[in-house]
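Fold it.
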Amino acid sequence: MQDFSIPTTGGDFRLSDQRGGNVVIYFYPRDNTPGCTLEGSDFRDLATAFRRAHTTILGISTDTLESHRKFREKMRFPFELGSDEDHAVASRFAVWKQKNMYGRKMMGVERTTFLIDAEGILRHEWRKLRVAGHAEQVLAAVRGL
């Protein structure tokens, strides 16, 4: 997996600095929307199990760091949120896509999750996923590494 860095609610995150542990990167469309809140809450509720499995969770959207800070605090997420305002990281992961919302075409983040192992190898990706039960699927995949 190619290295990248992104500003987060806890400082800069660099993928290569995570070697030796697994990383779950989940891309989501917007802070404080129903699906994104549910997805983040599910990862939050399983955060201890991910930590025991030596796995860092990082949520990324194109919202600002200020928006992320408020969202993270409100939802009590025990993991960082990365701000990809210029969608450079989303583009690199091919999740910056044309979407159709109520008949209107627009560019946005397609909800997608990536699992990168301790060696930096992409082991799994979930595209066009359903939020319900997703965090449990990711945890099962982590445990299967």
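The longest helix spans residues 34-45.
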